[in-house]
Amino acid sequence: MDTNTLKCPICGAQFNSQEELDSHAKQMHSKTEEHQEEHSIMCSKCGLKVNVEDQLEKHKS
Predict the structure, then answer these.
(1) What is the pLDDT of residue 37?
(2) Which pLDDT band, with edges at 50, 70 and 90, does 1 fall under?
(3) Is the dihedral of CA 34, 25, 51, 47 positive or negative?
(4) What whole-number distance in Å separates Cα of residue 5 and Cα of residue 9?
(5) Cα atoms in the 13 Å half-sphere on the side-chain side of 25
(6) pLDDT for 6-60, tens place per residue?
(7) Distance between CA 41 and CA 36 in Å, rounded?
(8) Domain segments of the chain: what residues?
């Protein structure tokens, strides 16, 4: 990973600037609870809900 790359602490997405990270966080992680519920992915074994497929894959491993 490039030392200048910033990583989203929620989903792990990488960005080249703080502005890109902030924009991503606002768009992807600042939704209302109702909106997050509509777009969440649920683990079929335990019911954990995540917003990004990668989070579910990490959870399962």
Answers:
(1) 54
(2) very low
(3) negative
(4) 12
(5) 14
(6) 988 888 889 999 999 888 888 877 755 554 455 578 888 887 777 778 888 888 8
(7) 10
(8) 6-60
User: What is the DSSP secondary-structure string of 5-59?
Assistant: -EE-TTT--EESSHHHHHHHHHHHH-S-HHHHHHT-EE-TTT--EESSHHHHHHH
Answering whether pTM is above 0.70, one says no
Residue 30 one-letter amino acid? S
User: Apex CA 59: angle with CA 54 and CA 61, to 5°?
Assistant: 95
Residue 3: pLDDT band (50, 70, 90) is: low
d(CA 53, CA 32): 19
